[in-house]
Amino acid sequence: MPAEQPLATVVIPTYNGETYLRRILEMVSIQKVDGLVEILVIDSGSTDSTLEIVRDFPHVILHQIANSDFGHGKTRNLAAQLGTGTYIAYLTHDAVPLSEDWLRELITPFSMDDRIVAVMGKQVPRLKCFPLMKYEINGVFAQFGPDFGTTVFYKDTFVTNPGVLGAITFYSDVNSAARREVLVDRLPYRDVRYAEDQMFGQDLIEAGYHKAYAPRAAVEHSNDLTYSEFGARIFDETVGLRQIGTAVGMLDRKGMYRLIARGIAGDTLRILKDPQYTSKRRLYWLAINPFFQIRKWTSYRRAVDVDLADEAAILTGSLEGQRKTK
């Protein structure tokens, strides 16, 4: 008798992901869903306790690749080839599902319409996340729809400007799922250095497919970045968008100062009203957070000015470049 096909394969690419991986595997292992769930970890050369943690979960499939073979799009395509589920759900190694219903909520939109080929879940910032990142994450996902519903995005005649198209095509694979047959046979990820998820979102919308936002499929996620790493991450993201042909706004010094001032003012008001902060923590962030706004916009300005043909300059400003030198 043939084995039952898994309903979903949950894929977690890892590289030194020991901090949150155990919690992730525990949560994925207790998901309440009507069907089999396959869990696949693809590790690209971890040197911490990542592999030991995975081996504590005998039902988890571990596939190891060389660090040099990793690519954000390429590795996700490999996962779709290796996985056997009808749906391929992706988590990063620092995105922790917030409930036992996460997977069910993430794949439910596929049953609504055959044209829905990809679903993006919600991200909730960690409590210790610095305010700038916290408010940006909350703002990004708030614009996709209320938490009590599911939103479907597609391209039609109402899309008349690049701004609207950008909002419709936005996609994050930190917490996402796609139909395996589409990934394998029709619309694989592109093998790009960065922003593979943004390009995937563009490709699927331009191909006439639909994507959905499932806010109840929520994960806890925000990058644990130092002040220096945060700037390098902004640099990477902006350069990555330029490299895939996405238009990013140029920024002169005057405009940079204006955006810094606006960001500081807006975050200050949010911090003062934020019920999650104690009085002591509020004072701390009022003093520290402005430096993150400065770091953000100075890094962005460097990224829009850098010559895309200058690989050495890009590596110097890159977060990946920083980590490789440590």
Automatic annotation (TrEMBL):
PANTHER family reported in the protein's UniProt record: GLYCOSYLTRANSFERASE, POLY-BETA-1,6-N-ACETYL-D-GLUCOSAMINE SYNTHASE
Domain Glycosyltransferase 2-like: 9-183
Superkingdom, natural source: Bacteria
GO molecular function: glycosyltransferase activity
EC number(s) per entry: 2.4.1.-
Pfam families recorded: Glycos_transf_2 (PF00535)
Lineage: Bacteria, Bacillati, Actinomycetota, Actinomycetes, Micrococcales
Record protein name field: Rhamnosyl transferase
Enzyme class: transferase
Organism in which the protein naturally occurs: Cryobacterium roopkundense
